[in-house]
Amino acid sequence: MDSLFESVIVALLAFLSSMVGAVVGAGGGFIFIPAASLLGLPPQQLVPSSLSMVLANAVSASLQRYRSGGLNVSKTAVLGVAALPLAVLGSLIGSGLSLPHFKAGFGLFLLTTSVFVLTVREGLLKPRAETRFYRVLLTVIAAGFFSTLFGIGGGVLMVPALILTAGLEAHRAVATSQLVTFFTAATGVASYLAQGHFYPLLYTVAGVMGLAGGYVGSGIEIRMESEKLGRFVFTVFAIVGIYMLFSSLQ
Fold it and tell me: What is the reported pLDDT for 82?
């Protein structure tokens, strides 16, 4: 497929995915990856392109929180650095996957995540009352691995896990997730480049258009109660997960 055509399609998908992700508060990777996979792009192009989009949004969100005083950079950066080794491992594994294997793994991840988050939202699992650093550390490390393996922002999994297992308050969980995602996404892109997966045009347009889409999406209001919206989003996660699993068998 022509690289210019690929770049145009990736730019459109990055913009739309990031815009929708910003509207529903779920990130754009879960839309971008399945949609871009329809082009037949291999994981070696899909994942770093998506991570470029995720990185741009993480930078924007972290700067906004820092300016508003809602982000402790020094403490959170320690977590981001700690997540880097497994983030590199995730990218090394991801770069060796075929498209069918990648789709199967991505679908299973989305299904598992949707069940976990919906369980938390329905109150079947109760958040821990106390915060423990080792739980925070283990959570961000695991999220960093899956982020670079599948090319998604870790927030979808990281935020509810930090609240549930580590006892963090919601605003701290979101701020932590955003800065850690900056570290892991940047590491993922760099790791793919170091392995020779050099597609600068794809990565640039994904990052720039993803940032633009996130800006547009953040200004869009939707009239839906937060609980209903949450159920809708993670039901879509489950549907996309099932689609990816079945498509991997074709």
Answer: 92
Tokens of 80: 């981001």
Which tokens is 171 given? Answer: 């605003």
Q: Tens digit of pLDDT for each residue in 96-113?
A: 999 889 989 998 988 888
pLDDT of residue 91: 94
Separation of alpha carbons 238 and 123, rounded Å: 19
> Which of 48-57, 134-143, 186-195, 238-247 shows the highest mean pLDDT?
186-195
How many domains, in total, are found in the chain? 1
Distances (CA, A) of 179 to 108, 144, 195: 26, 11, 25
Greatest distance between any 2 Cα atoms in the chain: 54
The span from the CA of 137 to the CA of 83, in Å, is 8
**Cα–Cα nearest to 5, from 31, 34, 40, 29:** 40
Amino acid at 203: Y
pLDDT in tens, 139-168: 889 988 998 999 987 777 787 778 777 777
Cβ pair 21, 209 in contact under 8 A: no
Contacts of 69 (CB under 8 A, 6+ apart): none
Count of H-run helices and E-run strands, the chain? 11, 0
Tell me the two tokens of residue 204: 């640039």
Q: Where are the alpha helices (DSSP H) in 2-98?
A: 3-24, 29-37, 43-67, 73-82, 84-94
pLDDT, residue 27, reads 65
Helices (H), 99-132: 99-121
- Are 24 and 219 in contact by the 8 Å Cβ rule? The answer is no
Select the more confidently predicted residue: 215 or 250.
Answer: 215
Dihedral pair phi/psi, residue 228, rounded to 5°: -65, -40
- Residue 148 domain boundaries: 3-247
